[in-house]
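Following up on my earlier thread - several people asked me to post the actual chain instead of describing it. Fair enough. Here it is, all 179 residues.
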Amino acid sequence: MLTGDELEEDLREAPTRIGTVRLIVRRPAVNEREVMTEAQLDVGEGLVGDTWRVRGSSSTLDGSPHPEAQITVMSARAAAAIAGDVERWPLAGDQLYVDFDISEQNLPAGTRVLVGDAEIEVSAKPHTGCAKFSARFGKDALRLVSTPTGRALRLRGMNARVTKSGTVRVGDRIAPVGS
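Reply from S.P.:
Thanks for posting it. Predicted structure:
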């Protein structure tokens, strides 16, 4: 794993205007991952076939799915530094892994982002590390993503909601609306 400074330097070299979708992962059941070359993002369902809608959220009063955590996006550079080989990236539990600067500075909450034919909106709800993340990647990885710098760079990823349904494929571009 890269040191915090090395990872920060690598992330700061990520594209800021137009990036690339590197990996798509669907979570069809708890602790299951399905790597996909193409997926449908849907305004009501999130990533079609994912468990987001049925699993609900502990952060909503009624346990319903959190609308601001419909899609999770992680930097491919952060995933590579934390998880290593691309085969281990899905263990992080995110759906889209991108070579793109997803930092708070580059994509503040409310930013609309085109990803393939779909559009997502960056959520203000932070995407944080949890016990599963720590168990899979170690306490040092959890500490790294939880630092103020780690949170600002969104090393653990970012939450988003789908604002326009569409198809996303590995290799598609990801860019803020208007780029």
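The two ends are 33 Å apart (CA to CA). That should answer part of your original question.
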